[in-house]
Design goal:
159 residues, mainly alpha, 5 helices, membrane, transmembrane helix
Length: 159
């Protein structure tokens, strides 16, 4: 059952920023990189990586973790690592010259799922195969459902 909750927390960490953006519109939408450019002249992260999204993702995990029998601290760390992975993939995509809306299969999902799941594997009594299963399930679900969420107008990008 823990693996199901880890999947739920991953989904929350990545979905809460999207929901917060829809509900709050432009409120608290300051970009984390404050519009800074890297030495290659490209944005550090991009304007879609906001403080609002970071707080929403971490807060969602912190609030739901106790329902799963996990501590609030675990939820905070798990959510923060998921969003750190998302920031790392955005940084890598900008260095590759890809736009914020560009699709990069694997790069869009692996850092944001692997970092928190490795943390969970070290923290919780789960097997390696369970940790791998959570990452694979998250990647597959993300790849399959994101285009549908885009068509329904829930997501701004189809990934």
């Amino acid at each position: 059952m823990t693996t199901v909750w880890l999947f739920v927390l991953l989904t929350l960490a990545n979905g809460a920023p999207v929901i917060a953006a829809r509900l709050l519109r432009q409120r608290w939408s300051a970009p984390i990189d404050n519009g800074r450019l890297w030495r290659d002249g490209r944005p550090l992260l991009g304007k879609s990586k906001t403080w609002r999204g970071l707080v929403a993702g971490i807060l969602a995990c912190a609030l739901v973790a106790p329902i799963a029998g996990l501590s609030v601290g675990f939820g905070v760390a798990f959510g923060a690592l998921a969003l750190l992975g998302d920031l790392l993939s955005s940084f890598a995509k900008r260095r590759m010259g890809l736009a914020a809306s560009a699709r990069a299969a694997g790069l869009d999902q692996l850092p944001e799922s692997t970092l928190p799941v490795v943390f969970a594997w070290a923290w919780l009594p789960i097997q390696v195969w369970q940790a791998v299963a959570v990452v694979v399930l998250f990647v597959a679900t993300n790849v399959l459902l994101s285009p549908l969420l885009f068509r329904l107008g829930i997501r701004k990008q189809p990934h």
